[in-house]
Queue: 3 jobs
Job 1
Amino acid sequence: MPVWTSTRDPRHHATFAEAAARSMAPGGGLYVPASLPRLDADALLPMPFVDRSVRILQSLLDDVDPDQVEQATRSALDFPVPLVRVTDRIDALELFHGPTLAFKDFGARFLARILAAFGGERERLVLTATSGDTGAAVAHAFWRLPGFRVVVLYPKGRISPLQEKQFCTLGDNVRTYAVDGSFDDCQMMVKACFDDAELRAKHGLVSANSIHVARLVAQTTYYWEAAARRPDAVVAVPSGNFGNVCAGIIARRQGAPIKNLVVATNANSTVPDYLDGAPYAPRESVTTPANAMDVGAPSNFERIRWLFADDRDAMRRELRWGSLSNEGIATELRATWATERYLLDPHGAVAAAILRHVLEDGEHGVFLATAHPAKFLEVVEATVGFRPSIPTSLAERADLPVLSEPLAANARSLFSAI
Ligand SMILES: *Cc1c(COP(=O)(O)O)cnc(C)c1O
């Protein structure tokens, strides 16, 4: 029975609903499952994706009403998850067919639906800062969901025009603020709200960031899909805050037949450097074309450490790893289009290139394609020389007016805005 505990205090215990409501454990730890039930792979693998996902999430949320878990899962994961051949030895698991065209839809949609199922009398405020993908996924997931308001902060002029259209045109219960500052300013302002106990209670603040347990558990489902379609493959994960790969480690420990997981980063190589033997050294992030992975101090690394009992040698046995330069991203995108006619996005390109590098003779590989190439229009066009076609869900929003309001980059202006 997976009671939830804290990375910083093994004596702390919480039910899933408590962990989901708190988001962070007391003292700043991250919630982790105290034990992981081994699942029956022979029974699960032949099942269709959504039916299997219901079973997996019911086992991880075994203190929640199974009907609630089933409804939340079916309503959250209502889009396809295709496995697409790229070369004879490598497939892409495309995680970008949800409403905002990136894998964050899995976690954000399940989070919204399970919190809605838990109910509560009063309206709650989902407050988040974004550098692009997270804000879109969270805004869409909670859009028009009764009982919730959403406020998203983003740095003015520093997200792509198409990204802005994607979530700043929704309206209704979603409000967006273009902050006159950086992404770090936005995060600081959001954190100031969460640090204020009075504000937290007054607005029923809900955090939707990447350390949230509901996002974590939902992301285990597609690792099972990869394993069902290609048993014993080596699975490469484009990583930034390392929430995604944590879910992969959990799926593998629960019995998903995955030969190895590959941690793939862009030039922000904090974790690969550590796995190479350097001391763990979080640092400032550097800008890359795979910008959703521009993280120098990954917030989920604490969870990975806990999952491996802080044993670097154990990590080195269970994981493979690598980092890719900006030039490497462009080369991979161009070459994969030229030779295989498969159009990568910059994040998938990181995973594909590193996967090819670490794959040994006789092995099969799967990489997670985390975003649709049209989300990174400018980079992709500059690299392959043509404009990827824009899916209708995104194209439809391109002509709508941006509803964002301006906001000064300080906590007080946010306090009065919400
Ligand atoms: C957020 C994101 C990542 C990184 O995922 P983490 O869970 O933070 O490691 C990779 N690719 C895309 C497209 C993303 O939006």
Job 2
Amino acid sequence: MWQAEVRVDLDAIRENASRLRSGTGAELMAVVKADGYGHGMVPAARAALDGGAGWLGVCTLDEALTLRRAGITAPVLAWLLAPGLPLHEGVAAGIDLGVASLSQLAEMVEAGRAAGRPARLHLKIDTGLARGGATVADWPALLDAAAKAQADGLVEVVGVWSHFVYADSPGHPTIDRQLAVFHEGIGMAERAGLRPRYRHLANSAATLTRPDTHLDLVRPGLAVYGLSPVAGERYGLRPAMTARARVMLTKRVPAGSGVSYGHTYTTERAANLAVVPLGYADGVPRHASNSGPVQLGGKRRTISGRVCMDQFVLDCGDDPVSAGDEVTLFGDGADGGPTADDWAEAVGTINYEIVTRFGSTRVPRRYDGERP
Ligand SMILES: *Cc1c(COP(=O)(O)O)cnc(C)c1O
């Protein structure tokens, strides 16, 4: 018996990866950072590889090493690397590293020396996001230093890459502008004597809407988990995560009863209340107070009053409700129940944040479609 759980349908991840793969002539990197967007990094990675991904993308060195310790041998790129990490462990484990500055490059040269093999690098150019990547002004110096290190056998430049500002708004002028800057950056790399095998900048949105950005490799994350980066579009993807709980306690209260902390909700009529054992410590945003949608007894309902750390309350009116009844917070929406998109809209965030939050440790995560 379970009281709350996050179910992850690995067949959905396989099918989504396969759909993304068949929609492009490029290779597919499934991004599995942040514990696979809350779905479980290793099972999600295996399912995506089964579905046709050839690469995995993560942020941290730890994430990359965790994939290797799980026995995953596919190419892995890690791109969020603060100074002073044991990068030689990554090089020794065959992890590709994202690099955006001369000081990072120097660390990677050292890491290659320590590991006894050249570090495999993807040079990142900032084409407009002003987050990761070398600025256009700093790009030539990075290219020259990388070309020299490669000539000396100290590194191997495998890729050149960048990241979009606003690809989730198809037609936004930043997309064409960034693509043009990226192509200029690639031209400069070639003139510096580099022949990067992988040129990549497409996230989920660009993978789904802009084939001209696919180049050699696409890097979708969100879409692998069946969620759409573009509001109102589904692209035939199937959401893999369902969050649900069982009603813990029911009670009949009179009209005018204040409900939960602060009494921000008051019953209009006598009502059956259902107490649900999930709260903000489990991933339910506190902003879902009086707004989060759930499905109980075949009906959509809205959370009544504040979301607490561990529980919330539903006003079910005169509908019969019993302890043990199933409450779906979000799933694939096939039964008319809410989706992560509905939650994002209700609390003023994005579907990315909803699923990532539910990758918490207290709610057990269970897998459907697991393969040996
Ligand atoms: C997270 C991330 C992605 C994947 O983005 P989605 O919008 O989830 O497809 C791709 N590239 C980089 C650099 C990222 O940080």
Job 3
Amino acid sequence: MKKFTTISIFALTIFCFCFLQGISSKNILFFHSVATSSHRTAIWPLASKLADLGHDVTYIFAIDPQKRVGYHPKIEEIVPSKMVSIIKEFVADFDINIRLENRVDEWLQTVFTTAITVCEAFYDSPETQEWLSRPNLHFDLVLIDAGFGECAYGLVHKFKAKHIVFTPFVCGLVYDTFGVVPESSSIPDPFFDFMPNQITLIQRTWNTIAPLMWRYNILKYIEKLEPMVRDKMNMTDMPPIAEFEKNTSLVFHNGHFIEEYPVSLPPMFVSYSGIRCEPNKIKPLPTELSDFIKDTDTFVYVSLGSSVDVGKMPISLRNKFFDAFKSFKDVKFFWRWSGPIPQDTPDNVMLAPWFPQLDILGHPKAKAFITQGGRPSIQEALCHSVPIIAIPIFAEQDHNAMKLEQIDALVRLNINNISEDDIATAINEVLHNPKYAEKIRKLSNMFKDRPIDPLENLIYWTDFVLRHDTSLLKPLAMQQTWYQRRLLDVYGFLLLIFLTLIVVAAVIMYTAIRMCYYILKICLRKHKKE
Ligand SMILES: *[C@@H]1O[C@H](CO)[C@@H](O)[C@H](O)[C@H]1NC(C)=O
Ligand SMILES: *[C@@H]1O[C@H](CO)[C@@H](O)[C@H](O)[C@H]1NC(C)=O
Ligand SMILES: *[C@@H]1O[C@H](CO)[C@@H](O)[C@H](O)[C@H]1NC(C)=O
């Protein structure tokens, strides 16, 4: 009885506290544009938690509902059908061969035009139109995926809502937009894969230019996007997208100093790395999987990511993996596969289109994780302390892998020239050289050592945006131009002064020499006459 009273008083206190704090139910919208499943997976815990706390959450994500990860009974999902088919086509274009044929950069360039088509498809989809035509549709806050989410500013304007931008990693998509000058003298751009301690002058030059090229391409793309959004929403009064960008309340980014170089970011940047790390919530594996690993004490989990069609890899490459796996008689392998299951799959390998990845990595017999090295995968490995072999495919994966390789936290392989022997050696090393398990254990402890639970922190900042204006957190440089932010005008001015001084000095010297010459001439003439 006494316990019961204590509990009720405690509950009442919490209730009053929340009430006084003014936490009331708000309408919150999440919007993804050109995004792979990993973008959704990474931010889903926030949406889910906001719904648990009583907010009305709507989630816009263009993927086949059967294929999406994460479900919450109280979250309304809008799946714009026309957008789904365009994204499906775009992602299907990306198979592993693009990396094998060194066409990643070329493919990346097409993303700007795709983003415009995707946005058009969003507003044209019948699901979107039905949703927008609902009476009393209102949102207080929109959370926008930085991956070409500018399309959502039409919604922000319609609902007169505040907005937060979230980004899978800090890169050229966000630097100048939010007044951040990247530390390009020392930190490699996420799309470059050189080591910061051996950076050359040429690499630093590329490193400096790359974010500017991103920004230039983004501005070109926004120029085309803006009139289209205005038109689709019938909003002739919609201000330029650049104004919405300046009004962004906060930027949530998925980075932590273990997976990222130690980078300085303004107070408006809040990290969400680690919000999926809940080692206590691991569920037992389904019987089919647990039976497979019954007679072994070691298994390796292989997944090259949800967006890479591994089934399309050349058979010769597939056989290198199979042969390497076959040589580990006492080890079982789970491989997240796409497409038909090959006949010659070794007995110790199970291929499936989907695995309960967190439960697998959280299993005590999981001794290695072969991954493409995307941020969420690295974070899962850190969370569950599983040694990593990284085989980067695209985006920031090479960068992530090199960062961690540098501190001996993983073994990195290059898929372009990988051999059966490389794979076997890497597995052997990670399974049997204790330095990898030891290192990941230390990093895992550090990763989870936080002053506040990362998800609680994110909820706090989301509520903060609902309660306050965040102008005071924004970098002043947000109001400046790209060259003012980099002090290029100051250096230009100094150069001008320097050049002027040189010219003035040169003129003075020239005049002086001429004068001396004349004086000398006159003297000489006089001398001759005498
Ligand atoms: C814009 O106007 C057109 C024609 O008046 C209409 O068909 C369409 O539904 C409107 N769109 C929106 C988003 O209000
Ligand atoms: C930006 O915020 C200011 C101040 O709240 C507001 O007056 C303005 O309309 C906003 N601009 C846009 C484009 O939302
Ligand atoms: C594979 O390529 C990488 C970089 O292109 C190189 O550093 C490495 O030495 C190559 N490995 C082999 C086995 O050729």
